[in-house]
Amino acid sequence: MKFTAQQIAGILEGDVVGNPEAEVSKLSKIEEGTEGSLTFLANPKYTAHIYTTKASVAIVNKTFNPETSIETTLIKVDDAYKSFSKLLEYYNEVKNNKVGIELPSFISSTAKHGENLYLGAFSYIGDNVSIGENVKIFPNVYIGDNVTIGNNSVIFAGAKIYSETVIGNGCVINSGAIIGADGFGFAPNEKGEYNKVPQIGNVILEDFVDIGAATTIDRATLGSTVIRRGVKLDNQIQIAHNVEIGKNTVIAAQTGIAGSTKIGENCQIGGQVGIVGHITIGNNVKIQAQSGIGRNVKDNEVLQGSPALPYADYNKSYVHFKNLPKIVKTINDLEKNRWE
């Protein structure tokens, strides 16, 4: 699919400097631009590449004024980064704008769906499933009984949605994600063996939630595991039973959250963070990568380490930790001199 510089400028409400009929059919980094590609310049440290790039069209800030002549056609906008992101969203919409039911696939006679459904081949839709309008379900997706999916949501290939799950509007669930599997519930018996505790709750994803590839969210033992509006989860995250994550919180890859923990709104949690169960983490909390959280956390705290310390305290302590061999030698020398 090809677009002209003028068409792109219309989408972005930008101004063309150069050939308005310059055509592009692919995207590229500015340093790797080739003829027929579209790129952008937002970070000043890449400015030198604008004079050498082979890209046919480049999106730049309106404040950019070239020092020498440029062959590439420019589209000037208020914010090049935001405009390029907007264009990527538009590109994704066009690329994924599939409609229709591919065969072979299975849809229960008791399931219902809205207009413009796309259902990829080898997908399964269980009993009493309710699917909204403009939903895209890619091949090899499993959707269990009594699942509800809101309008404009996308479920990519190979995702598994267990029974009773509720998915809101505008959600994105990436490949390999598993939503609603049993929580890790076992009780020891008198023989020292473990008996399974039935997990009869569900998972609720509110509107505009993004779930990364191979991320797993367990159903509640009772009640619901709840992911609030606007939450963004990276790949390979484990969310245990009865966890609640507040709206607009973002969590990076390989983080694990144990059962019944409550996380507040607008939190930022780095990769490989471990969080124990049955604690409460407040709003606007920032947790650095590879931290271990074993206590309740108040609003606005910034934490690092395992077990995690307040961020400033951790940095001060780390300075001393790095100098520990020198400190030990100094102490040993002082002790030696004291006895001489």
Residue-averaged pLDDT, rounded?
A: 93
CATH superfamily of the largest domain: Hexapeptide repeat proteins
Structural class: alpha/beta
N-C termini distance = 85 Å
In terms of quaternary structure, the protein is single chain
Strand order of the largest sheet: 8-11-14-17-20-25-28-31-34-37-39-40
Count the beta strands. 40
**Percent of residues in beta strands?**
25-35%
SS summary, helix count: 4
Largest sheet: 12 strands, mixed
CATH-defined topology of the largest domain: UDP N-Acetylglucosamine Acyltransferase, domain 1
Name the poorly predicted regions.
Answer: none
Q: Quick one: overall form?
A: flat
CATH architecture of the largest domain: 3 Solenoid
Structural account:
The mean pLDDT is 93. Strand 22 (186-188) and strand 23 (194-196) form a beta hairpin. The chain is flat, with a radius of gyration of 26 Å. By secondary structure, it is an alpha/beta fold. It folds into 2 domains: 3-95, Udp-n-acetylmuramoylalanyl-d-glutamate--2,6- Diaminopimelate Ligase, Chain: A, domain 1; 100-314, UDP N-Acetylglucosamine Acyltransferase, domain 1 (3 Solenoid), CATH 2.160.10. Helix content is 15%, strand content 30%. This is UDP-3-O-acylglucosamine N-acyltransferase. Catalyzes the N-acylation of UDP-3-O-acylglucosamine using 3-hydroxyacyl-ACP as the acyl donor. Is involved in the biosynthesis of lipid A, a phosphorylated glycolipid that anchors the lipopolysaccharide to the outer membrane of the cell. Residues 22-89 form the UDP-3-O-[3-hydroxymyristoyl] glucosamine N-acyltransferase non-repeat region domain. Its EC number is 2.3.1.191.
